[in-house]
Specification:
The two termini are 47 Å apart. This protein has 144 residues and is an alpha+beta fold. It has helices spanning 2-13, 106-131, and strands spanning 16-21, 31-43, 48-62, 66-76, 81-92, 96-104. The longest helix is centred in the last third of the chain and has 26 residues, at 106-131. The chain is built from 2 helices and 6 strands. It has a 6-stranded antiparallel β-sheet.
Length: 144
């Protein structure tokens, strides 16, 4: 039963796509991926990561020369992914080569919803056929 609770989340996760945005600042609270032109360094309490080339997180705000992101994932030049655990990072705009924003795809959502309705209909039909199908009828009075 616990697995059934996670199925809608997994299916709806397929409705999310990353879309590149050009010359637009994302809305605060949106999930974004920043691709960097030059690798940067990240210093946390006890960890130090070098050669970061990409980061994913929630866009917080921006000022005149930087974007502020609450990072969740960081990627190094070698391709390794590291959890950032919500670290607040300020990235200079001049070092950002591309910004991708997470968006919900309407047609994927509709397709998954249609498949879910069809699956539910099949379950109802199969249960109905198993319980309420034609039987032998009334056997008559019981013998004494």
């Amino acid at each position: 039963m616990r697995l059934i609770r996670w199925i809608p989340l997994v299916l709806l996760g397929g409705c999310q796509t990353m879309v590149p945005i050009e010359n637009v600042t994302p809305q605060p609270g949106r999930t974004v991926v920043l691709h960097l032109q030059e690798p940067i360094e990240f210093q946390a309490a006890e960890a130090r990561l070098q050669n970061l080339v990409r980061m994913r997180g929630l866009f917080m705000t921006n000022d005149a020369d930087s974007l502020i992101v609450r990072a969740t994932d960081l990627w190094t030049a070698s391709g390794n992914r590291h959890a950032a655990l919500g670290a607040r990072m300020a990235v200079p705009r001049s070092n950002v080569s591309q910004i991708e924003e997470q968006r919900t795809s309407a047609w994927r959502s509709a397709l998954i919803a249609s498949a879910g309705v069809a699956a539910l209909g099949l379950v109802v039909f199969s249960v109905d056929a198993g319980l309420g199908g034609e039987g032998p009828g009334n056997p008559g009075p019981r013998p004494k």
